[in-house]
Amino acid sequence: MAVTRSANTVWTGDLVSGTGETTFETSGIGTFPVTWRARAEAAEGKTSPEELIAAAHASCYCMALSGMLKDSGHVAERLVTTAEVDFDTSNGARISEIRLTLVATVPGLDDGEFQKLAHAAKEGCPVSAALASVPSITLDARLA
Question: Model-level pTM greater than 0.85?
Answer without folding.
Answer: yes
